[in-house]
Amino acid sequence: MPQTADDMDAVAVRTWCSLALEALGREREAIDAINVYPVADGDTGTNLYLTVESATQAVEAVFAAHETGTTVPVAADAVRAMAHGALIGARGNSGTILAQLLRGMAGVLADGHDADHLRRALTRAAAAARQAVAHPVEGTVLTVATAAAEAAEAAGRAADDAGTAAVARAAYEGARTALEATPGQLAVLGRAGVVDAGGRGLVTVLGALVEAVSGRAPERTYVAVPAAVIPVPQDCAEGGPAFEVIYLLEATDNAVDRLRTRLDRLGDSLVVVGGDGLWNVHVHVDDAGAAVEAGVEAGRPYRIRITHFGADRVHPHTEPVQRAVVVVVPGDGLRGLCKEAGATTVLARPGEPPASGELVDAIRRAHAREVVLLPNDAELRHTAAAAAEQARAEGVRVALIPTRAAVQGIAALAVHEPDRSFDEDVVAMTAAAGATRYAELAVAERQSWTMAGICQAGDILGLIDGDVAVIGEDVPETARNVLDRMLAAGGELVTLILGEDVPDSLADKLEEHVREGYLAVDTVVYRGGLQCAPLLIGVE
User: Fold this and answer.
1) Which of 177, 383, 420, 487 has its CA at 20 to 30 Å from residue 160's CA atom?
2) What is the DSSP string of 91-154?
3) Predicted structure pTM score
4) What is the spatial distance between Cα 423 and Cα 185, in angstroms, rounded to a whole number?
């Protein structure tokens, strides 16, 4: 196929993402089967697929925005969307590293999309990925990425007029050669008789790149290995941290530097990727709560995912312990609800957030050696962190789950089980809270500019995850619009919390709206009480 300067334009990026997703879909199970490092949990192929799926969706969204016009997106738009989509959707160790590789490439390809830019993009990507990993190990995806970059550089030096297809093919061949050598570089791979799973996933992605710019798929010679014949090494199956913690983080560069240092002390497999205020954090730890709390102190963590590697990896407690949950609530109705569930509550009055001393007093009132603290407000994260530190100094084991809204706290409290281990309970509660999107209806007090446009005093504002997403004239219509936006991303359960002056008829109408428009989605309704906003919404 003739090469042109447009080989890595926006259409090529879109094609690359689509082909990479298809290829990973075909090879996902085979890659999962050879996943023995850094943890033999058999999910590398799945994590890479989900990461590329998020990147593909972001690129498709850019093209969808241009459908009404006659133009297509420029290359810079496409590659930036690809990198951002991968960053926010990255899963697992290898998926997080792949997101950084794509981000590194995007930083160069946004300025040009010819063969020279592709060559430099691959070099930038490999360097960025190594910088993101706290302790780089050879024989992994990092080695494969470096080999791909070096091969692309060599192709450029050998022929000044080498096109993008030639550069891409050289990178693919270099990566494939490096992949075949990984069992000799990393002992755990050699004992299992497999190549590195993350490296194989990267070879698959680079093969899709070759096809996108040349029109011809490269020959693939590696053979899928059935999971049943993979001998899982003992040093992967036993010992090591018990949890994988991943979250997106809004934070400054300096805060992230401090976070890296703290997380590196807590665990291993630390990868922090991103920049420009948005980061994806990945780490393996025994204390999942401490890893999340470190993120709270650094900035704003969200989309928190905690995976338990298996009961045999958890350090068991030698004796049962007494545990309590302390919850900050915005209304008397929710206070009663949480008390019925066994929680100790702290009432947050409008304009009067509780001080750290009030939270410490609540922890003391709970009379427990282990406490889970749910602040239910983003503005309380530093206050709650200070209270947790003081309580720890008094000998109480405290896990701070950074819930940002009452509906997240309710979701966490719903899965609380005091009879299981503290770590497992914190993981389950954190996962439930993180899986709950939240919204709030409020009345605009003055004219102001919002993310949804200019609002006037008296308008009804629909805030989703803390940002104004809908401006309406009345509560019912605004609530329906907010629900539609939230449920567009899926959901199984809607939680409605009504303020003191909101009639029951609103809940009836919203339940009917959900029932008619979204099959298999259930709705539960609570009364928030006097201090509560007109309407709080949660979607799990």
Assistant:
1) 177
2) -HHHHHHHHHHHHHHHHHHTT--SHHHHHHHHHHHHHHHHHHBSS--TTSHHHHHHHHHHHHHH
3) 0.60
4) 35
Which spans in 215-252 are helix H? 234-237
Half-sphere exposure of 123 (CA within 13 A, CB side): 14
CA-based torsion, 225, 229, 235, 239: positive or negative: positive
Whether the Cβ atoms of residue 417 and residue 320 lie closer than 8 Å to each other: no
Residues in the chain: 540
List, in order, residues 6 or more apart from 64 with CB less than 8 Å away: none
| Residue 513, helix vs strand vs coil | helix
pLDDT in tens, the chain (540 residues): 333 334 688 899 999 999 999 999 888 888 988 888 887 777 888 889 989 998 998 999 888 887 766 566 788 899 999 999 999 889 888 999 999 999 999 999 988 888 888 999 999 999 999 999 989 899 999 999 999 999 999 987 776 666 889 999 999 999 999 999 999 998 888 888 899 999 999 999 999 999 999 888 887 655 444 343 344 443 444 457 878 888 899 999 999 999 999 999 988 889 999 988 999 999 998 887 788 888 988 998 888 877 776 533 333 333 334 889 999 988 777 888 888 888 998 988 766 778 877 888 889 888 888 999 999 988 888 888 888 888 887 788 999 998 998 899 999 999 999 888 888 899 999 999 988 999 989 888 888 888 888 989 989 999 988 888 899 988 899 999 999 998 988 888 999 988 878 888 888 999 999 988 888 888 888 887 766 678 889 998
Q: SS3 of 326, please?
A: strand
C-beta atoms surrounding 417 within 10 Å = 11
The H helix count followed by the E strand count for the chain is 19, 16
Q: What share of the chain is helix, strand, coil (3-state, %, to 5)?
A: 50, 20, 30
User: What is the maximum alpha-carbon separation in the chain?
Assistant: 75
- Both structure tokens of 149: 């970059």
